[in-house]
Amino acid sequence: MIDFETYIRAHAADFDTQEPAPGHEERFLARLDVTPLPAAAPVSGGSPRTRLSSFFRRLRPADLLRHPATWACALAACLAVLLILRPGDPFRRAGNDPAAIYLAYMDQVAEIYGQLPPEAGSDRDLTLQEMTEETDPLFTQLPDELSPRQRARILKEYYGELLAGARKLNNY
User: Fold this and answer.
1) Residue range 143-156: average pLDDT?
2) Angle, in degrees to the nearest 10, between helices 122-132 and 98-115
3) pLDDT at 161 over 50
4) CA distance to 9, 37, 106, per residue, from 134 (Å)
5) How far apart are alpha carbons 119 and 47 in whole angstroms?
6) pLDDT exceeds 80 at position 159
């Protein structure tokens, strides 16, 4: 008879990359006499599981408390994601392209106009229009000597302040 522990250790990679045989979970649950779990969604493309996913399956909150370094790494990863995604930044997808920054600004302005209550009156509407509309957009007036990064910083700061003022006016 085969020693199961020896077999499992010899074929550990197969357990991480291959799905169990069809009906395995049902047979296992029948022996335990418990109610079955809902069926899992099929894996698209039949891609093998990675060792990283098996790491996350074994990671439990209790492990984080026992290993402060793991907790610090998880916290650092969350902060890095927040810094990269910058939720609430209307220019996060624009990069350093001045035209894309201006288009993102105009999208935000259109959203603010859409949120303007109908009973706001023509004074508020006129003030909002004077704040946000430009005859000659700033990105066309910046000198060519500036690097794309410098231009982007100037535009994001300028249009960000205009948007903040427009939001304050809209909430007034």
Assistant:
1) 88
2) 170
3) yes
4) 69, 59, 11
5) 56
6) yes
